[in-house]
Amino acid sequence: MKYHYYPGCSLEGTAMEYDASTRAVMKAMSVELMELEDWTCCGASAADTVSYLLSIVLPARNLALAEATKDKADLLVPCSACYLNLRRVEDHIKRDEHLKEKVNTVLNEDGLGYHGGIKVRHLLDVLASDVGHAMVNDHVARELKGLRVAPYYGCQALRPYADFDDAEQPRSMEPLIEALGAEVYPWPMGAKCCGAGLMTTKKEVAMDAVTAILAHARGADCIVTVCPMCQMNLESFQKKACQMSGEALEISILYLPQLMGLAFGLPQGALKLDKNMAFTDSLREKLQSLPATSTGREKAAA
C-alpha cells in the first residue's frame, strides 16, 4: 500500500506526536507514505474568512501537487481540519461549474493545475478500510488487555462528508481498538463536538463541551482521538474542567496511532509520548504491567 501524505501545519508543530506516530505505525505495517514536496497550508479555518476563493485555492494547490507526480495514489491526511478542507475542493468544484476555471487561473501562476484526479482520505478511513483490523492484529507485539479505550471521532472527520462511517454513530475505530487487545469503552460522546475554535472566542461554551466529554469518559483508561484540535482541547483544559465541575476528570488523551504503536511494541520515543500533555501515571503503570505477546505472524508461523 502506498499513499501521498499531507501532514499539514499542526503535525509539524503542536501535533508533531501525531505525525511521528502515524509515520511509525505505517512503516511498521509496510505502508508507504510519500510526503508531498513543497506542500503548503490548507487554509485552516482562517482563509474562508478572508476569501472564499482563497479557501479553495490553498487546498487545491496541494491536490495539484499530488496530481503532478508520477505516483497515482490517494492522498492520506491525518488532520481532520486539513482533511475537510482538501475533501471539499472536489465537492465545491462539482457544484460550481465556473469555480474550477477560477482556481486554475491562480494555480497556473505556479505552473500547476487542478483536474480532480486525487482522492482525499482521512487516516482513520485508510486504517479502517484499507489496512483493516486483521493486519493491525498481525503486528501486535503486546496486547492491551484490560485497557478500556474511549474512541473519540470529533466533527470534521465525518461531517459533512460521512465517506467511511456514520457521522452520528461512528464505529470505525472500534475494530481497530479491539484488534490491539483493548476493550472499547461504551459512551455516547464519540461524535460530539469538543468546542473546537470556540475555545478562543466563546470559551465558556467550549469548556462546557470539554467538561461533558471528560465526565462521560470516567471509567475509561484513555480517550483516543484522530484530530489535533480535539486532542488539544481535551488535553489542555483538563485542569480547568476539573475546577469547573469540582470533580477529578483527569484522563490520558492519545492519538490512535500512538495507541497502535504501544501495542506494536514501538519505542515510546518514536511515538513522542513525551509530547502528550495528558498521560496519567495510572495508564503508564497499566502499560508497564502488560506482558509481551506473540504477533499474529509469529502465531501463524508456529
Would you spell out the secondary-structure blueprint of this structure?
Elements: E1 2-5, H1 16-28, E2 32-35, H2 47-50, H3 52-68, E3 75-77, H4 80-95, H5 99-107, E4 120-122, H6 123-138, E5 148-151, H7 174-179, E6 183-184, H8 198-201, H9 203-216, E7 222-225, H10 228-236, H11 238-245, E8 252-255, H12 256-264, H13 268-271, H14 281-288, H15 296-301
Parallel strand pairs: 1-2, 1-3, 3-4, 5-6, 5-7, 7-8
Concise account of the structure shown:
The protein has helices at residues 16-28, 47-50, 52-68, 80-95, 99-107, 123-138, 174-179, 198-201, 203-216, 228-236, 238-245, 256-264, 268-271, 281-288, 296-301; strands at residues 2-5, 32-35, 75-77, 120-122, 148-151, 183-184, 222-225, 252-255. By secondary structure, the protein is of the alpha/beta class.
Keywords:
302 residues; 47% helix
Describe this structure in words.
With 302 residues, this protein is of the alpha/beta class. The protein has 15 helices and eight strands. The chain has helices at 16-28, 47-50, 52-68, 80-95, 99-107, 123-138, 174-179, 198-201, 203-216, 228-236, 238-245, 256-264, 268-271, 281-288, 296-301; strands spanning 2-5, 32-35, 75-77, 120-122, 148-151, 183-184, 222-225, 252-255. A four-stranded parallel beta sheet has the order 2-1-3-4. The chain has a four-stranded parallel beta sheet with strand order 6-5-7-8. It is globular, with a radius of gyration of 20 Å.
